[in-house]
Amino acid sequence: MLHFNLKLFIGVLISLFIISCGSESYGLPEVKSNHPLEVKNILFAHGFMSSSETWEDFTRYSSNYANREWVPYLTSVSKTGTIIQRASELADYINAQNLDDNSVLAVGHSMGGLDLRYIISMGHQNQSVNNKYYTAAKKIYKLYTIATPHKGSNIASLVKRDNGAVHDLSVEYMNEFNQKYPYSNNHIDDRFIPMLAIRFTCQKAQKNDGVVAIDKQILENAPYSEKIYKGKHTSGLRRCEKNAREELTQSRIIEGILNDTIAAVNLKKERL
After folding, report:
1. For 180-223, what is each residue's pLDDT tens digit?
2. Per-residue confidence at 242, pLDDT binned at 50, 70, 90?
3. Cα–Cα distance between 77 and 44 in angstroms, integer?
């Protein structure tokens, strides 16, 4: 009898070891998300001259993470279109997915963050079921932007004779955009859709991620990441430090988004 119990005990230990190794091999972290359980979808909006393929690392990591099965949605909109054009296409995509209201983490990289801001703001301005921006904005629980040029890009301001994305990304146009679509417009029905702007730099001396300056990655009155993460806007940027990884390949960023653990500066007035 004693011999049987010993064998049973050893068998249980082996089983637990196998289960433990199996979980580790799949990379499932033993953490829980701070977002409400009904928030189970994560939507990725790409930037200028980009596509849904840029989110491969994010979607692979978030497909089975923490205490829920996240459902990733990858969008594809005009690569060079205006914010209005891209946001229109993005709103159509969101409305076609049969998503519950208040169930989506919306993540926008670069210009994708501006597209999402436009959707929310236009939804606020006309809260009617006949307004596609309103119905799309209702799906969003929280907005995260990654290196989004909320105050424009100095590089875009140097380019002339463009009526599409480059024009809209200029510092001059974004000044007008922010006046028309301020953070205070994030009110939809009786709730406010919070936003967090995540900041990056690829060279401390230059204070930008190779494309967007750090001080341009924040929006007046909106929270932004307390930490400035090291990363470059896209691949092939020579002026970045050699060990600077692309922003969308860093697991710590998606972990912070899914867990809602990115420390933020939450002030009414900007302060760097």
Report:
1. 999 999 999 999 999 999 999 998 777 999 999 999 999 999 99
2. confident
3. 11
> What would the two tokens of residue 249 be?
């390949």
Domain boundaries, the chain: 40-265
**Beta carbons within 8 Å of 148's beta carbon, 6+ residues apart:** 108, 109, 110, 111, 112, 113, 114, 197, 212, 217
Residue-wise pLDDT tens digits, 128-142: 999 999 999 999 999
The residues pairing with 65 across neighbouring beta strands, listed in sequence order, are 68
Residue 158: exposed, middle, or buried by beta-carbon count in 10 A (0-12, 13-18, 19+)? exposed
From the DSSP assignment, how many helices (H) and strands (E) are in the chain?
9, 9
Indicate the pTM of the whole model. Answer: 0.85
Distance CA 122, CA 189 (A): 13
Q: Given phi > 0 = left and psi -120 to 50 = alpha, else beta, which region is 189?
A: left
Which CATH code fits 40-265? 3.40.50.1820
DSSP secondary-structure letter at 245? P
Residue indicated by tokens 């230990």: 13
The pair of structure tokens assigned to 23 is 């979980």
Cβ count near 100 (within 10 Å): 13
Q: How far apart are CA 46 and CA 112, in angstroms?
A: 5
> What whole-number distance in Å separates Cα of residue 271 and Cα of residue 226?
11
CB 250 within 8 A of CB 231: yes
